[in-house]
Amino acid sequence: MIIRNATLEDAPRLVEIYDYYVQKTAITFEYQTPSVIAFQQRMKKAMEMYPYLVIVNNNTIMGYAYAGHLNVREAYDWSCEMTIYLDPSARKKGYGKKLYFALEEACKKMGITNFYACIGYPQKDDGYLTKNSAQFHAHLGYKENGYFHHCGYKFHRWYDMIWMEKIVDVVEHPKPIIPYPNIKETNR
């Protein structure tokens, strides 16, 4: 198993993974799976500044994770939103933890100190959404810091959303963030 930087050529497999979550779950509140070209545009935008990683086992991408802007205002530069999706067959096998740890380490090298996750949250578990993502993040040290009621409507029902955060460093006068593409390959 290896973790590496994603490339735009990975997009067809990443869309295949993401399609499951769009079509069969309320983990994402998106209704339509993006085309490969649209997905590549999203990847390219994220990769201008942040890490975008894939985890590979036996030459097959089993999941991906990336960071993105929490907010476009400069004062938020030391914070980012974290996202992860795994092939359904890869869940509960340690892939997610390894991939998320690698993403967090890459973000720390950039100088990012605050990690956030926006998570669909059911009032009670159902066939489309469980509390597993929130439990996964809590296991990794994230704390719930925001709760939004009935903010996502998918599959003819309302879902809540929570924000979770992990503060990894408190710096009185932080240095400017280093864009991930500017970090030398040996330091990634």
From TrEMBL:
Keywords: Acyltransferase, Transferase
UniProt-recorded name of the protein: N-acetyltransferase
Residue stretches making up the N-acetyltransferase domain: 1-169
Stored Pfam families: Acetyltransf_4
Entry-linked PROSITE patterns: GNAT
Taxonomic source organism: Absicoccus porci
Keyword Transferase: yes
Single GO molecular function: acyltransferase activity, transferring groups other than amino-acyl groups
Top-level taxon in the UniProt lineage: Bacteria
InterPro entries named in the record: Acyl_CoA_acyltransferase, GNAT_dom
PANTHER family reported in the protein's UniProt record: N-ACETYLTRANSFERASE, UPF0039 PROTEIN C11D3.02C
Keyword Lyase: no
